[in-house]
Design brief:
Rossmann fold, five-stranded parallel beta sheet, three-stranded antiparallel beta sheet, globular, alpha/beta
């Protein structure tokens, strides 16, 4: 059996170029692309008609996409659709982006594509898995191409951007069409974004009028307690830190402290503020299409919250589902790794211990946010609006 390799292929210089051929008025002479291997050719042929052919990765530098074979059970079991889904047995192959874009135009009826945005570690995977149990949703959890799009969008208009605005739009529309495929009974697709991809929320909603979004967050203090309790949080926060700090600095005239000078609590606070600003942008621009929800409140009223979320995404109301969702086994497992138990009570215990063990860093983080809001009225407005939404 031929399997996909993580290493990217070396495509010859005479590759297909993405999007230049999409304007009929342009005359472009193409050198034929290398022949696809049988698995890649099979997946490309299936791409318009079935989500079983999944675009797992985009490489704008090489102008290729990685297609892999999935099925309904693969989507349902996957906590992430990034490289963590790749295994030695994964079947797939690299295909020119031009061919993928052309195939996407042959997709027939597409379902609405909705989104779950969030600030990180605020229950987004849990909500996504509870939506799975409704039986009418195809959940796409943390698709890697969305992160690639967010990075590409950051560079638009700069001299070092690989994409023009027109090329970006073509790539975005290609993905929306492919994400909108489904299985029998699928009413909509729900893309659960990576936390930092929330900066693309407004652009995604502007480009897809049928799309709605859920935006999950926490208050600053419980967010700090949550993140500071996590063993892997420091690496995650530092990994996203440079992009978040640049984004936050672009919103304020006051110079922010350099990233390397921030304590872990201050770094967590900066991350919360950057992602809360992204949430504010989306909810302000699309108030009727973005449902903001505090995760602590969600846990106190699971059935009511899922009823609101289902209605927001246009799903039929299922009284039997709503009567049982508060006792769903999903609530007793760690959603990103369901083999581990993790109940709301265990979460409460973890937060209690974190508030005790990380009191100094929580205080530093809260002070960091307070200092930003004292010196910047726009940031103060955003923070106060977030607090008002939580009551």
């Amino acid at each position: 059996m031929r399997t996909v390799q993580r290493a990217q292929p070396r495509w010859p210089a005479a590759r297909f170029r993405l999007t230049l051929q999409f304007k009929a008025s342009r005359r472009i002479t193409h050198v034929p692309a290398p022949a696809l291997d049988p698995i890649a050719a099979e997946l490309l042929a299936r791409l318009p008609g079935s989500p079983d052919a999944y675009p797992q990765k985009l490489d704008f530098a090489r102008e290729v996409a990685l297609l892999i074979k999935l099925d309904a059970n693969s989507y349902r079991s996957a906590s992430f659709l990034d490289d963590r889904i790749l295994a030695p047995t994964t079947r797939g192959g690299w295909v020119p982006l031009r061919a993928v874009e052309e195939a996407s135009r042959k997709v027939g009826t597409t379902r609405p594509v909705h989104f779950i945005f969030h600030t990180g570690h605020v229950g987004s995977t849990l909500v996504s898995r509870l939506l799975d149990d409704m039986g009418a949703v195809l959940s796409l959890r943390e698709p890697l191409p969305l992160r690639t799009l967010a990075d590409a969008h950051d560079a638009l208009g700069r001299s070092d951007s690989l994409l023009s605005a027109e090329q970006f739009d073509l790539a975005l529309n290609m993905l929306l069409r492919l994400w909108g495929r489904g299985y029998e009974g699928t009413r909509c697709a729900v893309v659960k974004a990576t936390s930092s991809a929330g900066r693309l929320a407004s652009r995604l909603l502007a480009g897809s009028e049928r799309s709605h979004a859920l935006y999950l967050n926490l208050g600053a203090e419980p967010y700090l307690a949550t993140l500071l309790a996590g063993q892997n949080s420091p690496a995650d926060l530092r990994g996203h830190g440079p992009e978040r700090l640049r984004r936050l600095q672009a919103r304020t005239a006051s110079p922010l402290p350099p990233l390397h000078s921030l304590s872990l609590g201050e770094l967590t606070a900066m991350s919360w503020l950057a992602e809360t600003c992204a949430q504010h942008d989306a909810t302000s621009r699309f108030p009727d299409r973005v449902l903001a929800l505090d995760f602590d409140r969600f846990l106190t009223a699971v059935a009511e919250s899922m009823d609101r979320i289902g209605a927001h995404f246009g799903l039929p109301r299922d009284a039997r589902y709503l009567a049982s969702v508060a006792s769903s086994p999903v609530l007793g497992r760690y959603s990103k790794a369901p083999e581990y138990a993790y109940s709301p009570q265990l979460r409460a215990d973890v937060l209690r211990d974190s508030r005790r063990d990380n009191a100094d860093e929580i205080r530093r983080g809260m002070d960091w946010i307070a200092q930003r809001t004292r010196t910047d009225g726009a940031l103060a407005t955003i923070v106060h609006a977030a607090e008002a939404r939580r009551g």
